[in-house]
Every structure is written in C-alpha cells, then in structure tokens.
C-alpha cells in the first residue's frame, strides 16, 4: 500500500492531539474512498476511545518523504558532541566530589599559626 491507491480505496493517515497545546501524534492508517468518509471513520474508530482536541486525516499520497540523499544530509559533518546534554548526567556527583575536596573555613584558619613560622 505504500502511498498507492488500492482501487476504489485510498490510504489515509490519522493524527490527533489530546489537548490544544499537546503535540500532534500519528495514530493509525485507514482505507477509505474519500476524505469525508476517512474523517468519519477516524472519528468513529478513535474519538469514542478517548477525548480528542484535534483530529487530522491526511491522504498518504500528500505526505512527502525525504529521499535517501536528503536523509544523508541530516548526518553531522563535524563533531559537535559538546552541544549534546548527555555529558552532564554525572554533574551532581562530580560537584559533590569537588565540594568534599574543597577547603572549609576552619581548615584555612588553622593554617594561620603555620604560615607565621
């Protein structure tokens, strides 16, 4: 079915969001003769299960996919790992270790006598 019509029926993709500020999510695909019937089928099959703030029904042929060349362009050309946040997962542990090694006020004041000698 990959984007082709199946005789009388066409493939539609159904998207919905649960709240007005929620992201749109793909729910399922369905076969229908036209957009109006596809919308009715989506409402009947989906909206009776859970509340929906918005429902989109899109003919699969209208959705453009990236070509393999376009996908290849998405790969990083240079090393920008420093921009990724995964390196900060142990920051709390490292900070605690640093604090334990830091000098406290009492220790610094205890040096007073040794420095004057």
From TrEMBL:
Domain of life the protein comes from: Bacteria
Pfam families (UniProt xref): PaaB
NCBIfam families (UniProt xref): PA_CoA_Oxy2
Name the UniProt record assigns to this protein: Phenylacetate-CoA oxygenase
Organism expressing this protein natively: Geobacillus subterraneus
Organism lineage: Bacteria, Bacillati, Bacillota, Bacilli, Bacillales
